[in-house]
């Protein structure tokens, strides 16, 4: 049974201060339509710019995860993102009137309680999952960081931390399913070492810290004078070191709360992949930088898997949707510059075309005649002509229009194409056509192998009847 996408039933807000900026902010979770995903909106900036919660938008991981887009930035997004995953949501718009999410109590539980208070709304469209197809690994040998994602029909986490601290020691945490997140992980708070706290205080880096939202691990000898100084800074009557080796501002919720919080951070950072995952994630000594790098590696694997899925198995004996004569009724191109022989599929969002590469092509007379290779620029032109069929199918009189290509990006030639090969091109709209401009992702395959791919932008332009090529 397919799982449907989910959003929240109504808006709900939380208020607090940003840990690093000290800014008082209101974060409002809003329902969002299908396929919207997770997005932030800076309501305090002109135009209220949107920032997609995407690992490609990460601009800083020094003291939390910061994302930036459209001239706006949102800092410390990881706890909010973890709460959305823990609530099993798909589509939420988060309006924020400041540069950083509120730290709350240093965990994700208060965000989850706010989301629970308004309820969950099931939507009509099926959820998309990415199931880890094979082991995906990431390492940083100098920091002894190791992360691996393994195939599993669930979302499971195992995390180990080791800071070479006699107080903290080596800790492990894990959940066998994301369904355990709220009970086992959500309430686990952020932590820091005393030497880090002192450095951050001296450099004004935790303007919103008040010892109610972080566990402070005492990793050095500390005098009564130093404790009194900290008590004065944070408006406490007294400060002591608890038997667990932490400041006595709070009690641990779990003996291994730091490891559980690192797991929370990892779930939040991996939410920036942009799709629900199925797999077992095992991590040793993770941090925000490593988490984001690993998220990008998973995103690259998703892209690769999608490219594999575009291959089209076809029977050459089956009558095509359009043969070459019908193609010439749509496209203005003619031999020797018509590079599409058949159209196999055509919908409102995609098209599949075929190019049979033969030694009779004119360009083989001069393009490596002793070792003929189908030129890459002509592969792109053939892909563009395939995309032109898709664009021209949106008008009733295609003979009176031209498709002019405005931009080609991210071109990759992955294998040689030789005489005798048959290339199947598939072009998919990357977003709806607006004002006559189409953006497409094109892939060319020989058999089951990708040989070329590119992203293209084209504009459809009407020409006078008398100028139409016939």
UniProtKB/TrEMBL annotation:
<dbReference type="InterPro" id="IPR015870">
    <property type="entry name" value="UDP-acyl_N-AcGlcN_deAcase_N"/>
</dbReference>
<dbReference type="GO" id="GO:0009245">
    <property type="term" value="P:lipid A biosynthetic process"/>
</dbReference>
<dbReference type="InterPro" id="IPR029069">
    <property type="entry name" value="HotDog_dom_sf"/>
</dbReference>
<dbReference type="InterPro" id="IPR011334">
    <property type="entry name" value="UDP-acyl_GlcNac_deAcase_C"/>
</dbReference>
<feature type="binding site">
    <location>
        <position position="265"/>
    </location>
    <ligand>
        <name>Zn(2+)</name>
    </ligand>
</feature>
<protein>
    <recommendedName>
        <fullName>Multifunctional fusion protein</fullName>
        <ecNumber>4.2.1.59</ecNumber>
        <ecNumber>3.5.1.108</ecNumber>
    </recommendedName>
</protein>
<dbReference type="GO" id="GO:0006633">
    <property type="term" value="P:fatty acid biosynthetic process"/>
</dbReference>
<dbReference type="Pfam" id="PF03331">
    <property type="entry name" value="LpxC"/>
</dbReference>
<comment type="similarity">
    <text>Belongs to the LpxC family.</text>
</comment>
<dbReference type="InterPro" id="IPR010084">
    <property type="entry name" value="FabZ"/>
</dbReference>
<comment type="function">
    <text>Catalyzes the hydrolysis of UDP-3-O-myristoyl-N-acetylglucosamine to form UDP-3-O-myristoylglucosamine and acetate, the committed step in lipid A biosynthesis.</text>
</comment>
<feature type="binding site">
    <location>
        <position position="261"/>
    </location>
    <ligand>
        <name>Zn(2+)</name>
    </ligand>
</feature>
<keyword id="KW-0862">Zinc</keyword>
<dbReference type="InterPro" id="IPR013114">
    <property type="entry name" value="FabA_FabZ"/>
</dbReference>
<feature type="active site">
    <location>
        <position position="367"/>
    </location>
</feature>
<dbReference type="InterPro" id="IPR020568">
    <property type="entry name" value="Ribosomal_Su5_D2-typ_SF"/>
</dbReference>
<comment type="similarity">
    <text>In the C-terminal section; belongs to the thioester dehydratase family.</text>
</comment>
<comment type="function">
    <text>Involved in unsaturated fatty acids biosynthesis. Catalyzes the dehydration of short chain beta-hydroxyacyl-ACPs and long chain saturated and unsaturated beta-hydroxyacyl-ACPs.</text>
</comment>
<keyword id="KW-0443">Lipid metabolism</keyword>
<dbReference type="GO" id="GO:0005737">
    <property type="term" value="C:cytoplasm"/>
</dbReference>
<feature type="active site" description="Proton donor">
    <location>
        <position position="288"/>
    </location>
</feature>
<keyword id="KW-0441">Lipid A biosynthesis</keyword>
<dbReference type="GO" id="GO:0019171">
    <property type="term" value="F:(3R)-hydroxyacyl-[acyl-carrier-protein] dehydratase activity"/>
</dbReference>
<dbReference type="GO" id="GO:0016020">
    <property type="term" value="C:membrane"/>
</dbReference>
<keyword id="KW-0378">Hydrolase</keyword>
<keyword id="KW-0963">Cytoplasm</keyword>
<dbReference type="Pfam" id="PF07977">
    <property type="entry name" value="FabA"/>
</dbReference>
<keyword id="KW-0456">Lyase</keyword>
<comment type="pathway">
    <text>Glycolipid biosynthesis; lipid IV(A) biosynthesis; lipid IV(A) from (3R)-3-hydroxytetradecanoyl-[acyl-carrier-protein] and UDP-N-acetyl-alpha-D-glucosamine: step 2/6.</text>
</comment>
<dbReference type="GO" id="GO:0046872">
    <property type="term" value="F:metal ion binding"/>
</dbReference>
<dbReference type="InterPro" id="IPR004463">
    <property type="entry name" value="UDP-acyl_GlcNac_deAcase"/>
</dbReference>
<keyword id="KW-0444">Lipid biosynthesis</keyword>
<keyword id="KW-0479">Metal-binding</keyword>
<dbReference type="GO" id="GO:0103117">
    <property type="term" value="F:UDP-3-O-acyl-N-acetylglucosamine deacetylase activity"/>
</dbReference>
<feature type="binding site">
    <location>
        <position position="79"/>
    </location>
    <ligand>
        <name>Zn(2+)</name>
    </ligand>
</feature>
């Amino acid at each position: 049974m397919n799982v449907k996408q989910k959003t929240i039933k109504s808006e709900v807000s939380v208020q607090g201060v940003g840990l690093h900026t000290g800014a008082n902010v209101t974060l409002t979770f809003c329902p969002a339509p299908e396929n919207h995903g997770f997005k932030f909106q800076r309501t305090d900036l002109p135009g209220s710019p949107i920032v997609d919660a995407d690992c490609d938008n990460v601009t800083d991981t020094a003291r939390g995860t910061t994302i930036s887009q459209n001239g706006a930035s949102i800092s410390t997004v990881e706890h909010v993102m973890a709460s959305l995953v823990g609530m099993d949501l798909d589509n939420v718009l988060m309006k924020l009137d400041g540069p950083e999410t509120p730290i709350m109590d240093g965990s994700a539980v208060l965000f989850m309680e706010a989301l629970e208070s308004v309820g969950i709304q099931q939507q009509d469209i099926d959820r998309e999952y990415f199931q880890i197809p094979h082991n995906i690994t990431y390492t940083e040998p100098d920091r002894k960081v190791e992360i691996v994602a393994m195939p599993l029909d669930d979302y499971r986490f195992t995390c180990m931390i080791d800071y070479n601290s006699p107080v903290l020691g080596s800790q492990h945490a894990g959940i066998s399913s994301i369904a355990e997140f709220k009970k086992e992980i959500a309430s686990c708070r952020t932590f820091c070492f005393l030497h880090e706290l002192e450095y951050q205080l001296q450099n004004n880096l935790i303007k919103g810290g008040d010892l109610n939202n972080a566990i402070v691990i005492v990793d050095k000898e500390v005098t009564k004078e130093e404790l009194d100084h900290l008590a004065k800074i944070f408006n406490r009557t007294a400060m002591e070191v608890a038997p667990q080796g932490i400041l006595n501002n709070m009690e641990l919720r779990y003996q291994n709360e730091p490891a559980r919080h690192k797991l929370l951070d990892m779930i939040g950072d991996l939410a920036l992949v942009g799709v629900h995952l199925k797999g077992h994630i095992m991590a040793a000594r993770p941090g925000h930088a490593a988490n984001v790098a690993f998220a990008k590696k998973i995103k690259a694997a998703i892209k690769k898997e999608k490219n594999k899925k575009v291959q089209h198995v076809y029977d050459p004996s089956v009558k095509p949707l359009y043969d070459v004569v019908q193609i010439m009724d749509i496209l203005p191109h003619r031999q020797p510059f018509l590079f599409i022989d058949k159209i196999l599929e055509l919908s409102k969002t995609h098209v599949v075309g075929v190019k049979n590469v033969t030694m009779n092509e004119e360009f083989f007379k001069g393009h490596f005649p002793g070792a003929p290779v189908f030129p890459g620029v002509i592969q792109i032109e053939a892909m563009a002509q395939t995309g032109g069929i898709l664009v021209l199918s949106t008008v009733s009189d295609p003979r009176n229009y031209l498709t002019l290509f405005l931009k080609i990006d991210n071109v990759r030639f992955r294998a040689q194409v030789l005489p005798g090969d048959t290339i199947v091109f598939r072009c998919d709209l990357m977003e709806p056509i607006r004002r006559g401009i189409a953006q497409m992702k094109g892939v060319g395959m020989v058999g089951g192998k990708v040989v070329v791919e590119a992203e293209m932008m084209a504009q459809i332009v009407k020409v006078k009847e008398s100028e139409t090529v016939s």
